[in-house]
Amino acid sequence: MTMTKRKNILLLSITTLVALALLGITISFVIRSNAQGEESGQNVRAYLNSPQPLVIILAEPEYRSVVASIQEHGTPIIVTEYLRRSGEDWYRIDINETESGWVQGQYISLERP
């Protein structure tokens, strides 16, 4: 393989990786902007997703917060707000008319688990 072909393959690989990274970032921004219910006027339907059977919902977007609720994996929710705190993505969710709280982004899925 000639040096020019190697350079072309390397450049193509780098370009592909950058394009995929930008696509991921774009999707992340779209989800976050849609999750900002009060600012965007939209709420996002989603599901609680966890490797464990239960998900802890907190009263405030921080680890040391009081537990607001404990829900089952797969519970349908409405994401109403997004907040980035201490490098973590937090989402305010409504479970039903009376229960709401905060959960980290890793426990939310847009598809039914």
Can I get a quick summary?
With about 110 residues, the protein is of the alpha+beta class. It is about 35% helix and about 35% strand.
Low-confidence stretches: none
Q: What is the correct CATH architecture?
A: Roll
Into which percent range does the helicity of residues fall? Answer: 25-40%
Our count of helices gives 2
Number of strands: 7
| Sequence of secondary-structure elements | HHEEEEEEE
Strand order of the largest sheet: 6-5-4-1-7
Question: Would you give an account of this structure?
Answer:
It is elongated, with a radius of gyration of 19 Å. A five-stranded antiparallel beta sheet has the order 6-5-4-1-7. The mean pLDDT is 86. It contains two helices and seven strands, in the order H-H-E-E-E-E-E-E-E. The chain starts with a helix and ends with a strand. It has one domain: SH3 type barrels. The protein is of the alpha+beta class and 113 residues long.
Features:
about 110 residues, alpha+beta, 2 helices, 7 strands
Q: How do the strands and helices of this protein lay out in sequence?
A:
Elements (H helix, E strand, L loop, with lengths): L2 H33 L1 H4 L3 E5 L5 E5 L8 E6 L3 E10 L2 E7 L5 E5 L3 E2 L4
